[in-house]
Amino acid sequence: MERVSIIGAGVMGMGIAQALAQQGLEVPIYDLERSILERSLERTRRNLESLVSKEKITAEEAERIISRIKITTNLEDTTTADLIIEAVFEDMEVKKKVFAQLDGLCPPATILASNTSTLSPTEIASATKRPDKVVGMHWFNPAPVMRLIEVISGAETSEETVQAVMEFARKVGKTPVRVNEAPGGIVSRILRGYLNVAVDVLAEGVATVEDIDTAMKLGANFPMGPFELIDLIGVDVHTNNSDALARELGDLKYRPHALLRKMVRAGHLGRKTGRGFYDYTK
After folding, report:
1. DSSP alpha helices (H): ranges in the chain?
2. Which distant-in-sequence residues (6+ apart) come within 8 Å of 228 by Cβ?
3. β-pairing verdict for 148-153 and 134-138
């Protein structure tokens, strides 16, 4: 697969675009509003400038990477791809609408992949006439850095589709693992429970945000504490994904604490808004 497009220019969508552009691929990326695309592209430019300042890439390499990311508000600009990766908001009806549109516009051979971590690829595929070519392709944040991709097969995903996506993941420097469809796959299902328990411990007054993070980094050898990680993922994203797992599994350990909902209502979503469990404006 040589031609790849991205649908959705949020943190994950543009992160995936950057990861692919760093591997030399030209990547069309679509969103509804040009302002969203331009903000995301500027954030990517800053990320690359940071790599330049650390002497991990040259300024010329950074410019070449940016030049490979082609932003567009015309969905048809993305539809000649061999593989389309959808990274819109984690809402089933939104995703089904996007997949139905893509199904009507793309050539029959195009594989349609969803970056979902919690929603059913089988249900997403039901909005198309090509369920054998619909697959979950769950990247991790930050996409240019994290090596893992979960390749999630739905009820009708063909073996050919799974193998093609796994081979593509290897081609762009990632390590794929195969997952049979289940709520949360591997990482999200395990991780959400851990993060929600951390919020419970905080809300009960057992320890502070800083001390909980320090304890898990030094006591469990985790590279990040749970609150640093929630802030990186996005408080809203973590809350929505936890809700989805709680609904699918009927297990209360996945139900997000009221503190998380209060933070979402206040707009304290983590790094992307400058404030979450930590204040990033200082």
Report:
1. 11-22, 34-53, 59-68, 92-105, 121-125, 159-171, 187-203, 209-219, 226-233, 235-249, 258-266
2. 213, 277, 278
3. antiparallel
| pTM flag (> 0.85) | yes
Asked if residue 176 lies in contact with residue 151, where contact means CB atoms within 8 angstroms, the answer is yes
Q: Once rounded to an integer, what is the mean pLDDT over residues 161-174?
A: 98
∠ CA 104-105-109, rounded to 5°:
90
Q: Does 164 have pLDDT greater than 90?
A: yes
- Whether residue 12 contacts residue 143, with contact meaning beta carbons closer than 8 Å, is answered with yes
Average pLDDT over residues 21-38: 97
pLDDT in tens, 41-86: 999 999 999 999 999 999 999 999 999 999 999 999 999 999 999 9
Q: Cα-atom radius of gyration of the chain, to the nearest Å?
A: 19
The angle at the Cα of 164, spanning 162 to 166, to the nearest 5 degrees, equals 70
Q: Which amino acid is it at 130?
A: R
For residue 118, give both structure tokens: 């919690």
Residues pairing with 86 in the sheet: 7, 114
Entry field: residues in the chain? 282
Give which of 273, 254, 238 is closest to 117, Cα–Cα: 238
> Can the peptide bond before residue 107 be classed as cis, meaning omega within 30 degrees of 0?
no
Domains of the chain in sequence order: 4-180 (3.40.50.720), 187-271 (1.10.1040.10)
